[in-house]
Amino acid sequence: MVNKQQKIKKGVELVCPVCDKQIPNLSSHLPKTTRCVYCSAIFVTTPVSVKYKTNYYQDIKPSVFHLLFLPIEKLFYSLRVKTIQNALSRHSKESVILDYGCGSGKLVNYLITSGFKKTYGFEPSADARQLAKKNGLKTIKENITPQKYDLIMFWHSLEHTKNPSVVIKKITTYLKKNGRVLIAVPNAQSFESQITKDNWFHYSYPLHLIHFTPKSIIHLLTKYQYKKIKIDYFNPEYTLSGVIQSFLNLFFPKDVLYHSLSNRRSNQNNLEQIFYSLLSIIIVITFSPFIATLFIYLLISKKTGAILVTACRN
Hints:
This protein is an alpha/beta fold.
C-alpha cells in the first residue's frame, strides 16, 4: 500500500544506490528524494551538479562563539576516540586506521596525537587536503593508501557518496580479516526528519545524496557479508545537537547556530549571524527541559537523528 502523501511517477524507474534494485520513483517525506521500497534508503533524484563552495574548506578566523564552544568540541572528539577504541577488535595503538572522507583531517590529527600513529585519511577535495597539509598533516591522500586496515570509518561522509554500495564493496578489500567498519550517518527514519523535513539539520541538499535508515544500512553491510552489526542511537555530537538545531531551524535561518559554533561559513553577514546565534542560545536555554525530555524519548524509541554503526568483516 502506498501512503496518500507518497506519489509514484508512472513509467519512471530508478536503481537504488544501496540495494541496486530497480524501483518506482516513490517520493519520500524529504524533498527532491525517492524512497526505496525494498531497503528503505532515501536518495536524491533531482539531477544537480554537486560542487562545494571554493571556500568550504578554507581556514577562517575563529568566532567568539567557536572559541567558547572549543571545550565541548574537544569533548566530542575525545568521545569519538573512545568510540573508535571500542570499535577496534583489539585495543591497540598499533591499529591501522583509515578515515574515509576525512575533510581537513581534524579527527586524523586527534587520533595521531592520541597515540594512534598509523592513522590515514582519504579525501577527494583538493582544498581540504591543502588545508590539512598547511596544518602539518602528511597522511591525508587523494587515493586510499594501499594496505590492510584494522578499521575504516565514515564520520558523516558516506551520505555524500553517489553510490555507497560501490564504496563499501571497495573498502572491504582494504580491511584485514575480522577488520571493522564504523559508520556515522544521519537517520532518515528519525522523528525530527519526519517533522521538520527540509528544515532537518541533517538534510543538506544536494550535498547529502543518500539518507540512510537503520534498515538500509543493515542491508548494505549484510550484502557484503559483514557480521556483528550494531547500531548506536546515542552519539550526542550529532543526535542532541541535531534535535536542537532542527528545532531552531523552524524559526531561524537554517543551521545558523551550528555555523557559529563550528566556525563554518554561512549565508548571513556577521551581525545577522551574531544576532540569530544569541537568540538561538536564549531559546535553547529557555526550552532546555523540553529539549532534554524529547531527546530522552527519542533515544528510548530509537528515533534519534543520527546513528553510529559498527560491523565486522567476515
